[in-house]
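Good morning,

Attaching, inline, the backbone tokens for the sequence recovery test we're adding to the shared suite. The designed sequence is right after.
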């Protein structure tokens, strides 16, 4: 494994130097070689930490590297707009979940993660761009985490389909109201979503009827 790590280091450095020279000689006005260099840098880092089985430490190093890269990119190309704050939050959750081990699979962790995500992006929405409530989109996505985990643990799949349908309906109605209140288009995706709990109900009902009839035959 040590030979593979040394080979990856040499190969990464050689390729990064080559790309840097090509970038400088052909298009010095655009520093594009940093993008493949990030992936090349992750190659020996990944081999090293995987060989040592340091998975938690690997998540910290990679997260820090990616965040540093995004901050530098933000500073170079758009210093007046701090867009990196949108991306770093989910990246930070990678090492957090790694260090939580089995606790990462609990409903409590899901609820805390869901609540903190909603609060973070809502505050960011209010501070950075209060003219449009875009925080509803990450809120809609992150709510699925505790919702799916809760019903999966209890195997209440029909109830999950009903709850999920209500969530989807609320989301589309909200987006409809804040984006285009003059056009009522939310009814179309809501109508399609209604087929989910309906089909789940009849599937369970039909299966119960089959088992009941089979039991009578016995």
């Amino acid at each position: 494994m040590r030979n593979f790590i040394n080979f990856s280091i040499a190969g990464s450095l050689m390729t990064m130097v080559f790309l840097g020279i090509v970038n400088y000689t052909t298009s010095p006005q655009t520093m594009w070689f940093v993008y493949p260099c990030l992936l090349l840098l992750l190659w020996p880092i990944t081999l090293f930490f995987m060989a040592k089985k340091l998975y938690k430490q690997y998540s910290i190093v990679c997260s820090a590297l990616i965040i540093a890269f995004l901050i530098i990119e933000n500073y170079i190309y758009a210093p007046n707009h701090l867009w990196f704050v949108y991306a770093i939050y989910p990246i930070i959750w990678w090492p957090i979940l790694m260090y939580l081990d089995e606790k990462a699979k609990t409903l409590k962790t899901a609820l805390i993660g869901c609540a903190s995500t909603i609060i973070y992006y809502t505050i960011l929405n209010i501070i950075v761009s209060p003219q449009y409530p875009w925080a509803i989109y990450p809120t809609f996505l992150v709510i699925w985490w505790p919702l799916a985990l809760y019903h999966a643990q209890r195997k209440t799949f029909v109830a999950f389909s009903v709850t999920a349908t209500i969530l989807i309906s609320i989301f589309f109605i909200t987006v409809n109201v804040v984006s285009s209140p003059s056009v009522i288009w939310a009814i179309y995706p809501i109508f399609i979503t209604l087929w989910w709990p309906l089909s789940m109900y009849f599937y369970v009902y039909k299966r119960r009827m089959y088992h009941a009839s089979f039991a009578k035959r016995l």
